[in-house]
Design brief:
mainly alpha; 86% helix; globular; transmembrane helix; transmembrane; membrane
């Protein structure tokens, strides 16, 4: 059974943030984030074209980067949930709803 990349990306963005927050170790949270990115990236590469894979990787990394300034405006939880939802939706639309190529 394959795990949808939407779940991987949302889970690793939220999980990475929570690991960093709960342990006080940002690098450990980064490991969770990187692991999710690698796992999703491998699936994107398998399921989509190189251009779509690149766009999805950029979306994932951009969501991580955007969550920081967004958190200053709306709070940490809302920011992480918002970028996770958008990333999951984009991942689903571009990769998960299609059969592997």
């Amino acid at each position: 059974m394959r795990v949808p990349t939407a779940a991987i990306t949302a889970g690793s963005l939220i999980g990475g943030w929570q690991v960093a927050r709960q342990t006080g170790n940002r690098q450990l949270g980064g490991v969770v984030l990187a692991a999710g990115g690698v796992l999703a990236g491998r699936e994107w590469a398998r399921r989509t074209s190189p251009a779509v894979t690149g766009a999805l990787v950029a979306t994932y990394l951009g969501a991580f980067g955007l969550s920081h300034p967004l958190a200053k405006r709306i709070g940490s939880w809302p920011a992480v949930l918002a970028v996770s939802a958008v990333t999951a939706a984009v991942s689903y639309a571009a990769a998960d709803r299609r059969p592997p190529r």
